[in-house]
Design brief:
The chain has 50 helices and no strands. With 692 residues, the chain is mainly alpha-helical.
Length: 692
């Protein structure tokens, strides 16, 4: 206030060493005051002070550097100091043999390194080698200031890799073992910043940081617990580190810290454990380390973020089948179900995800329902989060594989929201919703609810060729189940189901083919559907399925032809579509059921006069005559029925005799089977009516 600052700044230009020392010292003392800092900056003190950092007098250097240290605390002065060239001489002073000069320089650099613009400039000016050397020095005060500078520099993403590449990690790791807690904390914070970089995560572990960090977990100081868990949190993201951290003994102290009274510590530990639990081996070891009791307790924490991370850890652990049973035994399902109603999407997502995993085992399904899981799971089907919808839907799919749970879901009005999800933009959700409805449609009573709630149109839409195969499979399976009930057969056809189901017969998936074939088989029983199915083009793909390599598909296709052929108007179109060669080939199948169904189909087709000739011309007589000697009476009866129909045609009478039919018919007459006798006699009568 007395106007001393301006003349003191002017004296910095003196050539007299004592004058320089005392004027710099006076400015150093005055610069402690906030008001004086502003005046000194305005008076242009920074430039001359920087110049004296290169003085040959250590005492002048000391006073100038301490003055600059104080001034660097003034807003904007830190940038001015750097812009006027202050970094280079301050960094040079770090190499001084005088501890007081080193400390003065590092204190000034500590302040300067706080400003974001200065962080990368310090590294580019070459500060790192000197700072790293000071980290390994014997002066504890200088060590601490140096680690704070490195800590500040490590906040800049550009510096993260440079600090590691310059070899700083061993010195920083060594400081984790310092008896001075503040030093440990600064070192841990620095490693925490460095470990944010993907390239550094493995390098830091390779440099031996884990043992001292894990030891720090046992500290009674909350700050050290927080910083060590913070580093481990970052390191545990890297897959290579997950197993190493557990092998180094991190689990016991981490499990103990789950019971810390500090919520922030609980949160950090939960995140570390969540990351570690991604590794399959760690899942088992964590449960063996008795992590579940404390973890489940945190599911009831008043802190939502703690709940979220604890539940996410349970979700990861529950991927392992043995852990599923442990979680059930520890009462985890009740706690997890309670989180489904929390008004926080992240918590709900992990709770639903955990139940998704748990519900994969039978032991969990009744427990989830008993603990009241159905209502909130159904409510979450309408969540804004697709992940929550998906987890909830998969859980319900698992639950509905159990008979009792299907009826309970219907009582909770769960069918309609599932039908709505069939129209979801998410492929996965559509598949899971279709899979759940597939399960529900096992029960006859629930089929009616699905149809009543307009479930058929969206299920049929999922049979489009553009849909993923897994979605088609579940939708087709649901329609197959619904088609079992005769009252729904016509509804499926009216909803445009036949055309879409027919396209599924051409699928590369054997499962989809079979579902489609069974559905068409069921639909073809209904008299109203027979003509419509032929009109909608079902014959070509059904006939193609007669030559399938899958016996079950062949069988269903044969039964469809058998059923459709009962409609007189279909008899000739079926034959004209080329059914005879593959159908006749099945008469020689090694599977008796295929032989029988083929015979029945031919029997139905041979009622038609035009078809009688065609069937014989296609070579049906030899295998039919051979089947008269089948050990299965049902096959004998059906083969005989076809021959009886064919024998009405004058052309076929001669053919039957020429193909050796008479001995086989006579053998039946000599047999003891009354059921076959009438058809055999009628066939013989028809054959012998032919004039000589």
């Amino acid at each position: 206030d007395e106007g001393a600052i301006q003349p003191l700044v002017a004296l910095l230009g003196s050539s007299d060493q004592p004058v320089l020392e005392h004027s710099a010292g006076a400015l150093r003392n005055l610069s402690v005051s906030t008001d004086n800092k502003a005046q000194m900056v305005a008076a242009g003190a920074i430039g001359p002070l920087i110049g004296h950092l290169m003085s040959h007098s250590p005492r002048i250097q000391l006073q100038a550097s301490m003055a600059l240290r104080n001034l660097s605390l003034h807003p904007g002065a830190d940038v001015v100091i750097v812009n006027e060239g202050g970094l280079e001489p301050l960094i040079a002073m770090l190499y001084s043999s005088d501890d007081s000069l080193q400390e003065a320089a590092v204190l000034a650099l500590r302040n300067l390194s706080v400003h974001d613009d200065n962080k990368s400039k310090l590294v580019r000016q070459g500060a790192l080698p000197a700072l790293i050397a000071l980290l390994g020095g014997s002066n504890v005060s200088i060590q601490e200031q140096a680690i704070v500078v490195v800590r500040n520099l490590s906040l800049d993403p550009e510096n993260e890799v440079r600090i590691v590449e310059e070899g700083a990690v061993p010195a920083i790791v060594n400081l984790l073992r310092s008896p001075i807690e503040s030093m440990q904390e600064h070192a841990a914070v620095t490693l925490r910043n460095l470990s944010l970089n993907d390239d550094n995560e493995v390098r830091v572990v390779e440099e031996g940081c884990l043992p001292p960090l894990i030891a720090m977990l046992n500290s009674v100081k909350t700050a050290l617990q927080l910083q060590s868990t913070g580093v481990l949190r970052n390191l545990s993201v890297k897959m290579e580190n997950k197993l190493t951290m557990v092998q180094e003994g991190s689990l016991p102290p981490l499990v103990r810290l789950l019971e810390s009274p500090e919520e922030e510590v609980q949160l950090q530990v939960c995140v570390v454990l969540r990351n570690l639990a991604v590794n399959a081996s760690n899942k088992v070891k964590m449960v063996q380390a008795n992590v579940l009791p404390a973890l489940l307790k945190l599911l009831r924490s008043p802190n939502l973020r703690v709940q979220e991370q604890a539940c996410a850890t349970c979700q990861n652990l529950s991927v392992n089948n043995d852990n599923k049973l442990k979680l059930i035994e520890e009462g985890g399902i009740r706690a997890i179900v309670s989180l489904l109603s929390v008004q926080d999407l992240a918590v709900c997502e992990h709770a639903a995800g955990a139940l998704r995993n748990l519900s994969a085992v039978d032991e969990a399904r009744s427990v989830i329902v008993f603990e009241g899981g159905l209502p909130p799971l159904l409510a979450l089907l309408r969540s804004k989060s697709l992940a929550v919808q998906e987890h909830s839907c998969v859980t319900l799919r698992h639950l509905t594989s159990t008979d009792n749970n299907r009826a309970k879901l219907v009582k909770e009005n769960g069918v309609f929201p599932l039908i709505e999800l069939l129209k979801s933009d998410s492929e996965e959700i559509r598949e899971q919703a279709a899979g759940t409805i597939h399960n529900l449609a096992i029960d006859a009573d629930i089929r009616a609810v699905i149809v009543q709630k307009q479930g058929l149109p969206p299920l049929i839409d999922l049979l489009q060729p553009s849909m993923p195969e897994r979605t088609q499979e579940q939708a087709m399976g649901a329609i197959r189940n619904i088609s079992v009930s005769p009252q729904h057969e016509t509804e499926i056809v009216k909803s445009g189901g036949v055309t879409r189901i027919v396209t599924m017969l051409r699928s590369f998936s054997k499962v989809i083919q079979e579902h489609a074939a069974v559905a068409l088989r069921n639909l073809s029983v209904n008299p109203q559907n027979k003509v419509q199915m032929v009109k909608e083009g079902c014959l070509p793909p059904v006939i193609a399925c007669l030559s399938s390599l899958e016996q079950r598909v062949q069988e269903q296709a044969t039964i469809i032809i058998r059923n459709l052929a009962l409609e007189p108007g279909n008899e000739e179109p079926i034959v004209d579509s080329g059914v005879l060669p593959p159908l006749i080939a099945l008469l020689r199948s090694p599977f008796e059921r295929l032989q029988e169904h083929s015979c029945v189909a031919l029997r139905n087709l041979s009622v038609n006069d035009v078809n009688e000739i065609k069937i014989a011309e296609e070579g049906a007589l030899p295998p039919l005559i051979a089947l008269l000697r089948s050990p299965d009476k049902r096959i004998q009866m059906q083969a005989l029925g076809v021959l009886r129909n064919l024998s009405v045609s004058p052309v076929n009478k001669v053919r039957i005799v020429n193909e050796g039919g008479l001995p086989a018919l006579v053998t039946i007459l000599r047999g003891s089977s009354v059921e076959l006798l009438e058809d055999a006699l009628i066939t013989l009568r028809n054959v012998t009516v032919e004039p000589e």
